[in-house]
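User: Sequence recovery, please. Input:
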């Protein structure tokens, strides 16, 4: 009987429809829905990156690495890169430090979707509209300075725009929702029963966060840091509208 089954089994496998065989390997109709999104990613992100990389190795004059040699030989660009890092790194770290405690609290709220919607509103506004709002609010004749002068806390307006701090605040406002959503998704993905078990064993809130949540969030926070840093590093509109493009906020996107 076993020999007969061995002889019949290849024939039975050949008669299985291709659709079922692909589904057994994870390729079904639902998987095919990813194809349009994958094509968009390739066309909008992968292709421009590869094309730009190709152009960087094809200078108009000089050898294969002439563009890179020229870039790293220009001392002025070192200062530009340093200014960009001086903006991007503190903004990214601050957004993560703010996002983690807020996300830890929001995960326990019933009306989580409503609060999340309110927090992500800056994403829908765009960087230019946020910059215009900050100019009207933090400018020399803005609401903040006029209020402080009215209550006699200051005698002259505080300069909060067209300098480093104007760009810094803009990046925090526009970058926080993105960082918060990523952090919230990682925190809500942790099984609540783990925290309950730790509390049952006598761990306080600080111990639960340090020994339970933080190790589980380490990889997610690393990804969040990288994505948020790339977003902040590519700052351009805020550096022009709220900063000093010829001075402390001459970032690499302006120099390029």
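Assistant: Recovered sequence (256 residues):
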């Amino acid at each position: 009987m076993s020999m007969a089954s061995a002889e019949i089994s290849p024939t039975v496998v050949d008669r299985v429809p291709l659709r079922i065989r692909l589904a057994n390997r994870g390729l079904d109709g639902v998987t095919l829905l990813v194809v349009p999104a994958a094509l968009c990613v390739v066309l909008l992100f992968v292709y421009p990156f590869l094309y730009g990389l190709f152009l960087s190795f094809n200078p108009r004059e000089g050898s294969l690495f002439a563009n890179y040699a020229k870039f790293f030989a220009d001392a002025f660009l070192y200062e530009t890169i340093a200014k960009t890092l001086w903006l991007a790194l503190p903004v990214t770290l601050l957004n993560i430090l703010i996002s983690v405690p807020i996300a830890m609290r929001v995960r326990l709220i019933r009306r989580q979707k409503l609060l999340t919607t309110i927090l992500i509103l800056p994403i829908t506004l765009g960087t230019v509209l946020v910059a215009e709002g900050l100019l009207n609010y933090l400018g020399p004749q803005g609401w903040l300075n006029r209020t402080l002068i009215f209550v006699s806390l200051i005698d002259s307006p505080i300069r909060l725009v067209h300098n480093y701090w104007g760009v810094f605040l803009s990046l925090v406002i526009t970058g926080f929702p993105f960082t918060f959503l990523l952090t919230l998704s990682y925190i809500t993905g942790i099984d609540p029963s783990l925290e309950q078990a730790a509390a049952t064993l006598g761990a306080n809130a600080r111990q639960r966060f340090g020994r339970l949540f933080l190790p589980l969030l380490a990889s997610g926070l690393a990804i969040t840091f990288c994505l948020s840093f790339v977003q902040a590093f590519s700052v351009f509109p805020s550096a022009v509208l709220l900063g000093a493009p010829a001075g402390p906020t001459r970032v690499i996107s302006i120099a390029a």
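The chain is about 75% helix and 0% strand.
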